[in-house]
Amino acid sequence: MSLWTQQFAQALRREQLKRLPPAHLDAILLWLSHPENPQSADLTEAFSRVDLSRDTASRRIYTLLDQQLFSGSPPAPTTLGLAPNTAPEIVKQRYRRLMQVYHPDRHATKPLWATQRTERINLAFDAHRRGSHGWAHPTRYQKLSRCAKRSCSNCGNRCAHIGDI
Fold it and tell me: Which Gene3D superfamilies does the UniProt entry name for this protein (predicted)?
């Protein structure tokens, strides 16, 4: 078990955290979405050692994520919890992890809450892809994006032009 997981579990148990550690946010998101994943075993063991149940740990982590990622209005690129100059591949991985964690199907008792989070995650990811809100890499994803129009005469609905994506 790594030192950061021990320290994190102890601080979470004592409710001493103000923020989740940015360097380990992906590992925490993986634990929330796939606790059975072997890469999540360290966190599961650390929580067990400090007598922190999965439900309690999850609830506390979601509270911290809400404060850290979703407190601002309007939605900002910081919703992804990444710096503006982060590589597009890392941004896409974080986007996928956040969508796995917050997908409304995973939160049957709180669908509105989950839908609001996924909408903000989508807006932040879209802002990154477009290069707006100070985000870099405006053209890396354009060819993968779909046009907002049902049919685009410029690209046959596979846009590579900034005005339509």
Answer: DnaJ domain
